[in-house]
Amino acid sequence: MPQIISAKDLNNTAKVLLVEDDPEIVENLTEFLRTEGYSVTSVPTQKETMELLDRERFDLMLLDVTLKQGNGYSVCTAVKAKYDMPVIFLTALDDEFSVVTGLDMGADDYISKPFRPRELVSRMRSVLRRAGRTQSVVSVRDIRIDTEKGTVSREGKEIFLSALEYRLLLAFINHRGMILTRSMLLDEIWDAAGDFVNDNTLTVYIKRLREKIEKDPQNPEIILTVRGMGYRLGE
Q1: 213, 169 in Cβ contact below 8 A?
Q2: Fewer CB under 10 Å: which end of the chain, C or N?
Q3: In this predicted model, what pLDDT tens digit does every residue of 115-144 receive, in sequence order?
Q4: What are 201's strand-pairing partners?
Q5: Domain extent at residue 92
Q6: How many domains does the chain have?
Protein backbone atom coordinates (compact mmCIF):
# COMPACT_ATOMS: atom_id res chain seq x y z
CA MET A 1 0.00 0.00 0.00
CA PRO A 2 1.35 3.50 -0.81
CA GLN A 3 2.67 5.63 2.01
CA ILE A 4 0.23 8.27 3.22
CA ILE A 5 1.87 11.64 2.61
CA SER A 6 -1.13 13.90 2.10
CA ALA A 7 -0.74 17.68 2.36
CA LYS A 8 2.88 17.37 3.40
CA ASP A 9 4.16 17.38 -0.18
CA LEU A 10 2.57 20.71 -1.03
CA ASN A 11 2.86 22.44 2.30
CA ASN A 12 6.39 21.26 3.15
CA THR A 13 5.01 20.35 6.59
CA ALA A 14 3.55 23.80 7.24
CA LYS A 15 3.78 24.76 10.91
CA VAL A 16 0.40 25.70 12.36
CA LEU A 17 -0.18 27.48 15.65
CA LEU A 18 -3.61 26.66 17.09
CA VAL A 19 -4.82 29.20 19.66
CA GLU A 20 -7.77 27.49 21.32
CA ASP A 21 -8.75 26.87 24.94
CA ASP A 22 -11.26 24.05 24.44
CA PRO A 23 -9.29 20.82 25.13
CA GLU A 24 -11.62 18.64 23.06
CA ILE A 25 -11.35 20.87 20.00
CA VAL A 26 -7.58 21.06 20.43
CA GLU A 27 -7.23 17.28 20.63
CA ASN A 28 -9.51 16.45 17.69
CA LEU A 29 -8.28 19.22 15.39
CA THR A 30 -4.62 18.56 16.16
CA GLU A 31 -5.00 14.87 15.39
CA PHE A 32 -6.82 15.58 12.10
CA LEU A 33 -4.38 18.23 10.90
CA ARG A 34 -1.40 16.02 11.66
CA THR A 35 -2.87 13.24 9.52
CA GLU A 36 -3.13 15.88 6.77
CA GLY A 37 0.60 16.52 7.02
CA TYR A 38 0.68 19.68 9.17
CA SER A 39 2.87 20.29 12.19
CA VAL A 40 0.58 21.61 14.95
CA THR A 41 1.39 23.42 18.20
CA SER A 42 -1.42 24.63 20.47
CA VAL A 43 -1.66 27.27 23.18
CA PRO A 44 -4.76 28.34 25.16
CA THR A 45 -4.13 32.00 26.02
CA GLN A 46 -3.14 35.34 24.51
CA LYS A 47 -0.10 35.65 26.78
CA GLU A 48 1.29 32.22 25.86
CA THR A 49 0.67 32.92 22.17
CA MET A 50 2.80 36.05 22.13
CA GLU A 51 5.53 34.46 24.24
CA LEU A 52 5.74 31.49 21.89
CA LEU A 53 5.83 33.69 18.76
CA ASP A 54 8.85 35.52 20.19
CA ARG A 55 10.70 32.20 20.21
CA GLU A 56 9.37 30.26 17.25
CA ARG A 57 8.18 30.89 13.68
CA PHE A 58 4.91 29.51 12.29
CA ASP A 59 3.39 29.49 8.80
CA LEU A 60 -0.25 29.91 9.86
CA MET A 61 -2.33 30.70 12.93
CA LEU A 62 -5.77 29.22 13.65
CA LEU A 63 -7.28 31.56 16.23
CA ASP A 64 -10.38 31.31 18.39
CA VAL A 65 -12.05 34.67 19.03
CA THR A 66 -13.42 33.93 22.51
CA LEU A 67 -10.51 32.92 24.72
CA LYS A 68 -10.91 32.50 28.48
CA GLN A 69 -7.71 34.49 28.98
CA GLY A 70 -7.33 37.25 26.43
CA ASN A 71 -9.18 38.12 23.26
CA GLY A 72 -8.77 36.71 19.76
CA TYR A 73 -9.20 40.09 18.11
CA SER A 74 -6.40 41.53 20.25
CA VAL A 75 -4.18 38.56 19.40
CA CYS A 76 -4.82 39.08 15.67
CA THR A 77 -3.99 42.79 15.88
CA ALA A 78 -0.76 42.13 17.79
CA VAL A 79 0.31 39.31 15.47
CA LYS A 80 -0.33 41.30 12.31
CA ALA A 81 1.61 44.27 13.71
CA LYS A 82 4.67 42.26 14.68
CA TYR A 83 4.82 39.09 12.56
CA ASP A 84 4.42 38.17 8.92
CA MET A 85 1.93 35.35 9.44
CA PRO A 86 -1.55 34.62 8.03
CA VAL A 87 -4.41 34.21 10.51
CA ILE A 88 -7.66 32.27 10.19
CA PHE A 89 -10.34 32.88 12.82
CA LEU A 90 -12.20 29.84 14.15
CA THR A 91 -15.24 30.92 16.11
CA ALA A 92 -18.85 30.23 17.02
CA LEU A 93 -19.57 33.93 16.41
CA ASP A 94 -20.87 33.88 12.84
CA ASP A 95 -22.89 37.11 12.77
CA GLU A 96 -21.99 39.69 10.14
CA PHE A 97 -20.51 42.15 12.63
CA SER A 98 -18.11 39.56 14.08
CA VAL A 99 -17.01 38.40 10.64
CA VAL A 100 -16.40 41.94 9.37
CA THR A 101 -14.58 42.89 12.58
CA GLY A 102 -12.23 39.92 12.22
CA LEU A 103 -11.47 40.64 8.59
CA ASP A 104 -11.01 44.36 9.24
CA MET A 105 -8.39 43.46 11.87
CA GLY A 106 -6.37 41.73 9.19
CA ALA A 107 -7.54 38.12 9.44
CA ASP A 108 -6.98 36.22 6.19
CA ASP A 109 -10.12 34.10 6.57
CA TYR A 110 -12.95 33.46 9.00
CA ILE A 111 -14.64 30.09 9.49
CA SER A 112 -17.55 29.43 11.85
CA LYS A 113 -17.88 26.52 14.27
CA PRO A 114 -18.95 23.83 13.80
CA PHE A 115 -16.99 23.45 10.59
CA ARG A 116 -16.23 20.56 8.27
CA PRO A 117 -12.57 19.56 8.78
CA ARG A 118 -11.91 19.16 5.05
CA GLU A 119 -13.38 22.58 4.37
CA LEU A 120 -11.00 24.01 6.95
CA VAL A 121 -8.01 22.30 5.30
CA SER A 122 -9.11 23.67 1.92
CA ARG A 123 -9.28 27.20 3.39
CA MET A 124 -5.87 26.71 5.02
CA ARG A 125 -4.30 25.69 1.72
CA SER A 126 -5.79 28.74 0.00
CA VAL A 127 -4.47 31.11 2.67
CA LEU A 128 -1.02 29.46 2.64
CA ARG A 129 -0.87 29.76 -1.15
CA ARG A 130 -1.83 33.45 -1.05
CA ALA A 131 0.80 34.06 1.61
CA GLY A 132 3.46 32.34 -0.50
CA ARG A 133 4.00 29.62 2.09
CA THR A 134 3.45 26.70 -0.29
CA GLN A 135 4.93 25.38 -3.48
CA SER A 136 2.97 26.97 -6.34
CA VAL A 137 4.07 24.73 -9.23
CA VAL A 138 3.68 20.97 -9.06
CA SER A 139 4.57 18.37 -11.67
CA VAL A 140 3.07 14.91 -12.09
CA ARG A 141 4.72 13.00 -14.90
CA ASP A 142 4.48 15.42 -17.85
CA ILE A 143 1.62 17.47 -16.36
CA ARG A 144 2.46 20.85 -14.77
CA ILE A 145 0.00 22.43 -12.31
CA ASP A 146 0.48 26.06 -11.30
CA THR A 147 -1.74 26.48 -8.24
CA GLU A 148 -1.09 30.22 -8.04
CA LYS A 149 -2.31 30.86 -11.59
CA GLY A 150 -4.80 27.99 -11.55
CA THR A 151 -3.45 26.51 -14.79
CA VAL A 152 -2.64 23.01 -16.01
CA SER A 153 -0.33 22.36 -18.94
CA ARG A 154 1.68 19.76 -20.83
CA GLU A 155 4.84 20.72 -22.75
CA GLY A 156 3.89 24.40 -22.53
CA LYS A 157 0.37 23.89 -23.89
CA GLU A 158 -2.46 24.70 -21.50
CA ILE A 159 -5.06 22.05 -20.74
CA PHE A 160 -8.42 23.65 -20.05
CA LEU A 161 -10.28 22.13 -17.11
CA SER A 162 -13.64 23.04 -15.66
CA ALA A 163 -13.67 24.36 -12.08
CA LEU A 164 -14.77 20.99 -10.79
CA GLU A 165 -12.22 19.04 -12.86
CA TYR A 166 -9.46 21.32 -11.59
CA ARG A 167 -10.54 20.89 -7.99
CA LEU A 168 -10.68 17.13 -8.47
CA LEU A 169 -7.09 17.18 -9.76
CA LEU A 170 -6.00 19.30 -6.78
CA ALA A 171 -7.58 16.74 -4.45
CA PHE A 172 -5.19 14.12 -5.81
CA ILE A 173 -2.22 16.52 -5.80
CA ASN A 174 -2.86 17.51 -2.18
CA HIS A 175 -3.03 13.86 -1.14
CA ARG A 176 -0.06 12.38 -2.94
CA GLY A 177 0.57 8.77 -1.95
CA MET A 178 -2.84 8.44 -0.33
CA ILE A 179 -5.70 6.28 -1.55
CA LEU A 180 -8.79 8.47 -1.80
CA THR A 181 -12.15 6.80 -1.40
CA ARG A 182 -15.09 8.04 -3.42
CA SER A 183 -16.63 9.61 -0.31
CA MET A 184 -13.38 11.47 0.40
CA LEU A 185 -13.34 12.83 -3.15
CA LEU A 186 -16.96 13.93 -2.84
CA ASP A 187 -16.06 15.81 0.36
CA GLU A 188 -13.22 17.55 -1.47
CA ILE A 189 -15.22 18.77 -4.48
CA TRP A 190 -18.81 19.08 -3.26
CA ASP A 191 -19.06 22.86 -3.59
CA ALA A 192 -16.84 23.50 -6.62
CA ALA A 193 -18.57 25.91 -9.03
CA GLY A 194 -21.80 25.42 -7.07
CA ASP A 195 -22.39 22.07 -8.74
CA PHE A 196 -24.07 19.14 -7.03
CA VAL A 197 -21.93 16.05 -7.29
CA ASN A 198 -23.06 12.57 -6.33
CA ASP A 199 -21.41 9.19 -6.63
CA ASN A 200 -22.57 8.66 -10.21
CA THR A 201 -21.46 12.04 -11.51
CA LEU A 202 -18.10 11.61 -9.76
CA THR A 203 -17.41 8.72 -12.13
CA VAL A 204 -18.21 10.98 -15.08
CA TYR A 205 -15.87 13.73 -13.86
CA ILE A 206 -13.00 11.32 -13.26
CA LYS A 207 -13.51 10.01 -16.80
CA ARG A 208 -13.50 13.58 -18.20
CA LEU A 209 -10.39 14.50 -16.23
CA ARG A 210 -8.55 11.43 -17.49
CA GLU A 211 -9.53 12.26 -21.07
CA LYS A 212 -7.88 15.67 -20.67
CA ILE A 213 -4.69 14.87 -18.74
CA GLU A 214 -3.85 11.25 -19.61
CA LYS A 215 -1.94 10.41 -22.76
CA ASP A 216 -3.97 7.19 -22.96
CA PRO A 217 -7.19 7.55 -20.92
CA GLN A 218 -7.87 3.81 -21.28
CA ASN A 219 -4.57 3.07 -19.53
CA PRO A 220 -4.21 5.93 -17.05
CA GLU A 221 -0.87 6.72 -15.43
CA ILE A 222 -1.86 9.81 -13.43
CA ILE A 223 -5.27 9.01 -11.89
CA LEU A 224 -5.05 5.35 -10.93
CA THR A 225 -7.92 3.12 -9.82
CA VAL A 226 -7.33 1.03 -6.70
CA ARG A 227 -9.91 -1.71 -6.99
CA GLY A 228 -12.33 -1.95 -4.11
CA MET A 229 -10.81 1.10 -2.40
CA GLY A 230 -10.82 4.21 -4.58
CA TYR A 231 -8.19 6.16 -6.51
CA ARG A 232 -4.69 7.50 -6.05
CA LEU A 233 -2.22 9.71 -7.87
CA GLY A 234 0.29 7.84 -10.04
CA GLU A 235 3.91 8.81 -9.39
Answers
A1: yes
A2: N
A3: 888 888 888 888 887 776 555 677 888 898
A4: none
A5: 8-130
A6: 2
